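I am still learning, so would you mind making up any protein sequence you like and the tokens describing how it folds?
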Amino acid sequence: MSASGPPSDDATPVERGTGVGAVASGESPNPGPLLVGREAELHELRTLLADAAAGRCRALLVEGEPGVGKTTLLGAARSLADGFTVLTARGVEAEAGLAHAGLLELLRPVRDLVAEVPDTQAAALGSALGWSPGPAAADGFLVAAATLSLLAARAERGPVLVLVDDLQWVDRESAAAILFAARRLGPDPVAFLLAGRSGTLTQETPEGVPVLSLGGLAAPEATALLPAGTAHPVLEALVAGTGGNPLALLEAGRRLDDAQRIGAAPLPDPLPPGERLNRLYRATLGDLSPAARRAVLLLALSGTGDADLAAVATVLVASGVDPAAAWDEARGYGVLVRDGARHGFRHPLIRSTVLEDAGTAELVSAHAALAAALPAGHPARVWHRASAATGTEPAVAEDLALHAAADRVRLGHAAASLALERASALTPDPDLAARRLAEAAHDAFLAGDVARVRALVDRVLADGAPDDVRGEALLTLGTLEQYAGSVPRSVEHLTLASSLLTGPPLVRALAEQAMARFRLNDVAGFATCADQIDAVADPDDPEQRLLAAFCGGVALMLAGDLTAGPPRLAEVRRLADLPKLRADPRALLLTALAAGFTGEVGDAMTVGAPRVEEVRRRGTVGLLVPLLAIRAAGRAWLGDHAGAFADAGEAAELAHHLGYAADASVAVEMTAWQQAARGLHDDARASLDRARALTDRAGTTGAAAHQALTAAFCALCRDDLPGVVTVLEARLAVDGGVGAVGEPLGVAPLLVEAYVGLGRLDDARALAARFAEVTPPAAPPLSVALVHRCHLLTAADDATARASFDAAVEAHSIAWDPFEAARTRLLFGGGLRRAGERVAAREHLAAARDVFASMDLTHSSTRADQELAATGATARRRTGAGEDAPLTSQETRVALLAAQGRSNKEIAASLFLSPRTVERHLGNVFRKRGFRTRTELAATFVREAGPPVGRS
């Protein structure tokens, strides 16, 4: 027995130990106690709740060691949240492998609002949480979007507080959905307060959420947690020995005898807080009777559902134990607390200590008993059977594999991966065990768990698996590296995978390898992959024919064969229209890429637009990201810069949520260009920095050329001509200054312009001459137009300048790039103004200004207006009386969809936002543009959408 003996009442250990209502530990506080030493943290909570009540969604992650007071702080937030709907979830170690368990607990109280969630999102959520029958015909991302929509619907009725404790044990699917909503809700009255143990959260889990780190208490604060009359030296020794950990102080104080309390007897040797707590809990658990210890072990192994708790009671009764008496005893010793009719551990560390101290035979027996007591269809039953297994168990392994398949149907790929990993360990056949481990790696890939994929694939490769299994594992790892890791490593893995696979997996591996090599500008390697695909593709399989046509056609185009290449790429579009492939978003992606090589961008966008919307509706975000990036490039080329900004920004945001690198860097770089053209210079700098970091992570060195051109354009927009020179002269030294698509001296147009602006005319003329030498008359019309623009800028007399301008305009009329054509007019008009020909200058400057304004490129149009004003003309303002400030990418996105006549709820569903966020963005658009009605908005954005998308 302990020195104090078993308490006879149901008071909390804090109240028993101190005689005052002081709480600063990780236990759940009773109403009314004073929270000790957390004034700054309470102020942070009040601010969080006040912001949410005012319609500013905020999130906060409370992080700290066990016992430092995270749970207590969450309880304090709940007591402060007057007028809030409080939704709670708590991670339980026993349920960490059950897909969406945390989300089910959190959202169950608002299930009645699911009718207000967009249909596809509601279907995904209903399938994931078991609220509706049948599989989810959607991507797991929609579960996260539905979580956001459901919370937003509840927030329409009043403020909401989301409390999630022990985040480290919340299943991955639930944690991802909660964090997505926390990051993406905007002007919604929702507060998120999350808590997790330090060092247990993956690096990506709290990203984008501010962290509040809880430390230990100082001696003056700790006084309130120790028994009255504790000597000051004892107090200081306890604070030093526990690091000021509140729960450790409370537990140590409870077990001090009188001599130790006054300093007459030595204290136990100092231990780290976690170790100290475990030792204290072991002493308490040792005081329990065998029946009560059996009860708390069963509870520690169980989930929190009604069926789980009923199973515990069933097992106890079957073994002759009175459950009520066992609970009363455990509660009397402070091991358990009562929450209504349920019992739970007073602190998660007690649960951990129970499990650590249980012997293997005891654990096996308990798991077996719980499995027998649970209903046949309960998801935890197979896990208890697996935990009770002491060797290989083929029947249990098969049931786990079936359980994984069910998780996969419900979009629970992380849970499926865990089930397959355990199934592999229980499978006696080594080949089947390896195959299940490879499948676990693939599910981890679909769940976005990068570290787990790598670890599982390493195990497959180390276990002497069959060639095809090793090949499938390497295909998974290579695909992961291409999108979220290192592209050079991707090539290595996919090359090895291709040597091990046959049939359709071989074709997929070769196609992925070809794309990875393309990202690295390895043209020869791409062509080799294309030849290999042609040699092995099954002509009766539409998917394999599609991959062969795409890779073969691109290889021909890269080799300069403009006769044989286009027909093969045309076959891509025909095959993608076959019924078997029409619903496959990958086929749409290849169609868009093929169109980029043949120049049929407008036609491809016209055909692909409804299918892009279908990809969006299904929430297949992994493919939506590259599709949006490709469409952004096509829209920019066609002059639809509002659409390009919208698509590039959305691709960048979604790629960030997915952890993509290679595709993300392209989207972020395009966003930087668009931001600079609108005068959002700080945003452009930040985007460029992010694009460079993503490129470094992906290892896509081939992106350096066009990234430098984007950086130079951004510098030009902010009038940093020395910056333009620094960036582009460095490229001259590296690769001779090739352009974005490898054209010789592609840096020349921007660098010549910067040289002229800095008065370095000799350098400008020399570079313009070299550019003309390496650009033959048969070069693409845009290159020819830019050569003439360089001659225009460096002309020695007016006649030469006029002739160069006329030649540039003629070439621009063939090369469809209205932005560059307008820039040529802007530069020519500026030259005329400086030469004193103000009337002539106005025509060209006004034309350029109108083009830039139609593209919503506010910085470029403002510059043209400034040049016009310098001629004595009156600058034209937009229609309306708005601020004429640049729109952000998200505002542009919302405006374009509103211009199509969509409602706020429809826009929110399409962009994975809340209706309030859409409303805020529309308000900004109306204010900045001076609109009074949606009709005015629609008229403006129809104009700004540029030429018909069918133009190619």
